[in-house]
Amino acid sequence: MTVKALFREVNYQLSKLLAEIEDGDIGLPEIQRPFVWSRTKVRDLFDSMYRGFPVGYFLFWENPTNPKGTKQIGTNEKQQVARRLIVDGQQRLTSLYSVIKNRPVVDDEYRQAHLAIAFRPRDKRFAVPDAAIEKDPEYIKNISELWSGPKSRHRFQTEFIDRLRAGREVSHDEEDEIVEAIDRLYDLRDYPFTALELSAAATEREVADIFVRINSEGVELKQADFILTLMSVYWDAGRRELEGFCRAARFPAQGAKSPFNHFLTPSPDELLRATVGLGLRRARLQAVYPVLRGKEIDTGRMSEEVRTRQFELLRDAQKEALDLDNWHEFLGALRQAGYRSGSMITSRFNVLYCYVMFLIGWRDYGIERSTLRLVIARWFFMCVITGRYTGGAAETKMEQDLRRVIQTTNAEEFVEELDRVIDTQLTNDFWKVALPDLLATSAGYSPSLFSYHAALILLDANVLFSDVRIGDLLDPSVSPDLGAMDRWRLFPRKYLESVGVTGVGQLNQMANYAIFDRHGFRPNNESSLEYLATLWERHVPGEDHERVRFLHALPEGWEQLEYNEFLALRRKNIAKVIRAAFDKLRTGVAAIPGAVQPDRWSGPTVAELVAGIESFEVEFKQTAVGYGERFGKDKYPSNAVIKTVAAFLNTDGGTLGIGITDRDNHILGLEADFQRSGMDIDGYLNAITNGLASACGSGPIFSHTRARTEQVDGKWVIIIDVAPSTKPVYASTGKDATDKAFYVRANNTSPALNISEVPDYVATRWPH
Predict the structure, then answer these.
(1) What percentage of residues in the chain have a pLDDT greater than 70?
(2) Is residue 474 a contact partner of residue 486, using CB atoms and an 8 Å limit?
(3) Checking DSSP bridges between strand 654-658 and strand 105-106, what pairing results, if any?
């Protein structure tokens, strides 16, 4: 039985290969893989061809979906879609095309450069031009001029010999040899090549396998390489936009907006993931490639209509992904989560996939920017600390998350779904058991370590024994010298070795390190525990002991503890600090022992509330649940609660008591709601907080409200203290999250102003 080959052999002259590239018949994208060859490799390639040596074959792949003549999507170019795609031989073919056509290449740093190769006809020597060669008349400085310059071959030869004769004597025999050498160089355009052309029936997996087996350097073709190649073929302008964005992200721009940032210098294949996630709702690129080729899922046939439709989705998504406002708003969410630079991020997938969630929230649900930033900040915080998008399962986990958000139909459901996932991950067991276990590491580059640093930034902590803020020390935009931060052992190395602790894993335990200012007071390996105790008494005022001990996770009397006991306690304390920081992201309030709370949170107790009546500043609700208000389901909180809180924000503030009847001030409690919802008091309060943030915006809710709980005669009551907002707050209570109203307080009611009345009210209340 004859084996049917997946390839056929095709012979070319170099000039025909280059002509088909120019016509677009063979796809040669500039950065299918960036041009990474050195100039010496290009020199050696031409030297081998000149000597008649074989220089390898090319591997092409027949494009299955387009007949000759089909044009690219979204460009005004008349170049036809490539019928053959280059799989192997990209660097050689790019070198040949660049030198013979005198076209620049783009390297892996996105810099354009011409590949100049010199040639000395006297001894037929190729060289990479340098200063000496530039001054040497014996050399043709750039052989590209022979094929692509304005002069004919004869004139080129004549002028070269004339330049030689201006400096020395040239015999007729030498002249003949020079002419022959240049003729032979010119004839390289007819150098024969063999190409193996893979059938259109070959799958991308088979092509990748073939590539790895025949490629001498063992480079692996990734799924992104195939997709980027398709973009070059069908939507080259889009690929150029993608590459241009990545190039601009590498360098700060002077006086202009740019994608440059301190978190991520993306590559085209990385940003492609954001575009694909938003436009096609996929994370696994292996599943994306077939549909971009035009494969019909049901029949398996190739369809130009399918391909065109998928590329349109990709184009719309890329417009959002490369929008500089979107990009920097998202990066602001990372800062809001406490992170300051890429040096604090161990998985680039965490950044890229969180960007997808940001784009979905913005483009598809129109979530207000400040609200969305905070939602994504806590989502990112969770993803980092749990390693959600880390390792080989990152694509699979993101596929699951995309399927979850596909089921949501509006902004409120989208936010609720993300927060629901957060709640399932960051449970009490996670904070108390799993996280301390993750902190039991000696790695100096771990997500749990950087989560602790982010937490210290969120909680506005200073460096130990210093008044320098950790946030400033770790922020490259504030302190470019990141080396000013030091991590030193609390139990010094010399002391540990003296008590028998010698293993690197134990000596370098993360829980034994604290952040110090290199230019301030800090210990060293020779320090003693007594020295640290002296620094503590000297540089930490008594009133700050409790707060500083909490932030730096120092157990009471830690210097007296046995080392392993200290490590176990400090890991638990670090977990508490990280949890406090997350609570601040979630509710706007972090419980820090010894911290002074703002004076505005001095609302009445439950006893004081029920002793009075509803008024301009006091409101009672027997429940926070809107029964059947949310598409026939219970809503948390009810529209009545949303209106009251929004009205307090837009007026002079006030206090809302939930679990208290408004007729006789009777404490009803919330137990019936708990039973109906299956929540406890914490889950119930979280649902209210998230619902208010979704309806009124995270900014005013997290910065101008505080919720507290009290139990009276065994019945739970929630009190929400509301401070006056510093700007207008519009609230959404309907199905459409963009349909907002402006509520104010009038005696003991919360009416919505007529739309025509709002401008005058705002101008009077917030004149500046």
Answers:
(1) 89
(2) no
(3) unpaired
